[in-house]
């Protein structure tokens, strides 16, 4: 009985969808720099400031085409002290959503790091700019470029204006350690 429960548990873990990975294969950031996606703090300017929406990296599992076809999420300020005046999308991206409700499509399956958009923001007081689920449908996802596209979760780091940024995950898409074992070695543990 113990053996069959163990085998069932192994099969259940291996059958988890790719979206259930501990580290998301896509990472987005809001940066104060055009040169790095990881300048995630800035000081209030008291006027209009330009910040940058980055697709920081992509690291899909084997068998999936790296790069992104589309993404959907909202950008929110907290507390609501900074106002996003406009979003200027950079090629090869386009925005079919609103100013803070982004529905981004991309041609050519770009991977990161790449600046997807310039965000013109009225930066008058300390606060944060964060990624949030879409108000339209609750999505905060990126879609890969596979022939049969898959929706993936995303790690993210927002922008801290006069404060530390918020985020989810490391946003570096680094490799995830995996033990090297064959099925025979795994089965042999339970004989």
Q: Please give the CATH class.
A: Mainly Beta
- Counting DSSP E segments of at least 2 residues, the number of strands comes to 13
Query: At the third CATH level, what is the topology name?
Result: Immunoglobulin-like
Secondary structure tally, helices: 2
How much beta, percentage-wise? 35-45%
SSE topology string = HEEEEEEEEEEEEEH
Mean pLDDT: 81
The SS-based structural class is: mainly beta
The backbone outline, from C-alpha atoms, is: globular
CATH A-level architecture: Sandwich
Biggest sheet details: 13 strands, mixed
Count of the domains: 1
Spans of at least 5 consecutive residues whose pLDDT stays below 50 are 1-21, 176-180
Helicity range: under 10%
Based on CA atoms alone, the radius of gyration comes out at: 19 Å
What is the rounded distance between the termini? 12 Å
Q: Describe it for me?
A:
The protein is mostly beta strands. The chain has a single domain (24-174), classed as Immunoglobulin-like (Sandwich). The protein has 2 helices and 13 strands. Strands 1, 2, 3, 4, 5, 6, 7, 8, 9, 10, 11, 12 and 13 form a 13-stranded mixed sheet that branches. The longest helix has 13 residues, at 2-14. It starts with a helix and ends with a helix.
């Amino acid at each position: 009985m113990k053996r069959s429960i163990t085998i069932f548990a192994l099969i259940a873990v291996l059958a988890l969808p790719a979206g259930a990975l501990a580290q998301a294969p896509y990472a987005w950031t809001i940066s104060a720099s055009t040169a790095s996606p990881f300048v995630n703090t800035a000081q209030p300017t008291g006027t209009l400031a330009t910040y940058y929406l980055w697709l920081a990296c992509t690291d899909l599992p084997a068998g999936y085409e790296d790069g992104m076809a589309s993404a959907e999420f909202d950008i929110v300020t907290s507390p609501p002290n900074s106002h996003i005046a406009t979003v200027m999308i950079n090629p090869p991206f386009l925005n079919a959503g609103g100013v803070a409700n982004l529905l981004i499509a991309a041609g050519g399956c770009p991977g990161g790091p790449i600046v997807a958009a310039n965000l013109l923001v009225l930066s008058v007081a300390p606060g944060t700019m964060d990624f949030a689920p879409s108000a339209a449908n609750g999505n905060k996802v990126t879609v890969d470029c596979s022939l049969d596209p898959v929706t993936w979760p995303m790690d993210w780091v927002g922008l801290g204006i006069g404060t530390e940024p918020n985020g989810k995950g490391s946003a570096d898409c680094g490799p995830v350690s995996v033990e090297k074992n064959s099925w025979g070695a795994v089965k042999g543990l339970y004989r």
